[in-house]
Amino acid sequence: MEEGSENSEQLLEEESSDHEIDGEQVLRIESNDLENGSKQMLGIESNDLGNDSEQVLEFESNDQENNSEQLLEIESNDLENDTDRVLEIECDDHENDRDCDTTIIDDQNSISQGKGYPPPVVGMEFESYDDAYNYYNCYAKDLGFAIRVKSSWTKRNSKEKRGAVLCCNCEGFKTIKEASSRRKETRTGCLAMIRLRLVESNRWRVDEVKLEHNHLFDPERAQNSKSHKKMDAGAKRKLEPTLDIEVQTIKLYRTPVVDAVGYGSSNEREISNSVDQSKRLKLRKGDAQVIYNYFCQVQLINPNFFYVMDLNDEGYLRNVFWIDSRSRAACGYFGDVVAFDTTCLSNKYEIPLLAFVGVNHHRQSVLLGCGLLADETPETYVWLLRAWLTCMSGRPPQTIITDQCKALQSAIAEVFPRAHHRLCLSLVMQSILEKLGELQESDVFQTVLSRTVYNSIKVEEFEIAWEDMIRHFGIRDHEWLRNLYEDRERWAPVYLKDTFFAGMCPSQPGESMSPFFDGYVHQQTSLKEFLDMYELVLQEKHQKEALDDFGSRESLVLKTRCYYELQLSKLYTKEIFLKFQDEVEMMSSCFSVTQIHANGPIITYIVKEREGEGNTGLIRNFEVMYDKAGVEVRCICSCFNFKGYLCRHALCVLNYNNVEEIPIQYILARWRKDFKRLYVPDLGSNNVDITNPVQWFDHLYRRALQVVEEGMTSQDHYMVAWQAFKESLNKVRLVADKHV
């Protein structure tokens, strides 16, 4: 080790100039966020290592004022090289005055680890400068490039090193004097580097990383470089395993951790048995391995599968989030309205599962992600929602529907402040009956409650009817019910008319959405059983969607002569069309359209509707506003926002104004059967940096998957796609031959 120290010291003297900078000044220079305090950022940097497309996920928490740090050592088995990856990640959280938790993100596009050494990441720590230098040198040698010390600095009036920048040997360009020499030009202005900083007098931390090179690797030339020639043999033996050792590690600063499985501890010391069990995921023995095996298996066959693991400060697995490629793509089509299915959490199932659920173009539930949670605290939900938002390319939903969990409400307000957060009405109605004891069995009370909630058209009607109900049944002083009423703007339909629900809000008694895994997951279902059936459940859902896609191609039976019905029979999927067809049929119950007010092009009508059959039914008045200029119509029943299609009252007003076709703004793409839904995630913008091979890969990969999706629709599509692939490949090879 002393020999290695001399070597690296010699390189410092030969290839860099020391800068006399005070230690505190260094902190000021290297801090990336003085104004935002402990703001935590998730940065994703694309890099080109060789010709492969790779991505590095960096975790940074830049807060120089708060020195609370958490170090985590994570070891993950590489299926090809049987290597262990050791990462130490720092983060801080002075706002919540608690230890910050560590997150591991893995994606199908994660960076490869070369031949054995993992790529550097921000937060890595080493016991000495020599360990850090030797690690980066070995990593460089594996990939086929050389390194040098670009710069270093010491503490004022001392030779003690405080920091250094190690860069690729191709960094920069020759000076004018050097350019006149006969030596071959090897520098390309490469920006690949790592910045090291001494912390706590005995550890070296990686503060900045740039992995992207702008040149091809040359292992043979790198092998003869100064840095690799002077590599200390002892240091190499320390860093590289002997032949009989399968696990390869890098000597980082070690902290006592518990493995992700949660049944062992590090070699430094045994973890105390007093670890708070509530702060980690409740797993049976072997469950963590089941999760790991499942994720590894899916990543091999499911492109763009994404998962995140959350570890507590003892290193135990606490929360997990995952989403497959199809679900990630579905978020782009159906992620505007999302329900958080907490059935397993609220009913204390063995698996603490939360599912993100939307509705597709057939009004079928579609999975948009899953999570396993250790608890139901605001902090846990914030972590989960941020993980979910990350894989949605930062596009939050318009409407979120949940149960009455206060912790979840708090997390949504923090992560999705602009989303409309609403409570699931069917769960609210169920809770009312459960909380009111004897009234639960009263048919009269249930009828009054349903009429109050579902039939109130205006706010005044609802509030008067509610007051009459609690007075009549003597429940005015019921505290829970009083608190629910104070939160009525989140669940009572009369207050939600400006919120788009896409049919996920029940409009009449008895309507409700079944849990996504209803019939598959029960109270005693184990995690292993769940993951074993998980893919089968998704396959059944996908097959049902495909069958309904096929069924929607058939001609639909028309029941009226109204052109609106004919128009949407050609556009909507069968399920949505049948719902709309009911509205067209019920236009016959609307027997009067009367103008009551006009303000320029905006006219207000009253549409009279007789409920029930015959002339004895109750007559109700519905106010409808129509804008002649923009051909816009809105009914007070707000059917379009609740269900996603126009109601009979609005159709009557359009017909009254001789509007022959339903305006295009009321024909949603999410319901159309002729809309091509390619379940390929949006991997980014179409603007491609032609100098960046990583973006080449992402762009080509995305486009190729779209051809694959199209090619799977029929045998003819398949033949055309296959022929196109062959022709494209031949053309690409012709270009490659020209450069040989």
From TrEMBL:
Q: What is this protein called?
A: Protein FAR1-RELATED SEQUENCE
GO cellular component terms attached to this protein's record: nucleus
Please name one Pfam family that this protein belongs to: MULE
Presence of keyword Zinc-finger: yes
Where is this chain compositionally biased, Acidic residues type?
1-17
Q: Where in the cell is it found?
A: Nucleus
Q: Where is this region: Disordered?
A: 1-24
Principal location listed in the UniProt entry: nucleus
The family annotation for this protein states: Belongs to the FHY3/FAR1 family.
Domain SWIM-type, first and last residues per copy: 622-658
Example GO molecular function: zinc ion binding
In UniProt terms, what function does this protein have? Putative transcription activator involved in regulating light control of development.
Its keywords, alphabetically, are: Metal-binding, Nucleus, Zinc, Zinc-finger
Q: Source taxonomy lineage?
A: Eukaryota, Viridiplantae, Streptophyta, Embryophyta, Tracheophyta
What are its GO biological-process terms?
A: regulation of DNA-templated transcription
Native organism is Davidia involucrata (Dove tree)
Keyword Cytoplasm carried by entry: no
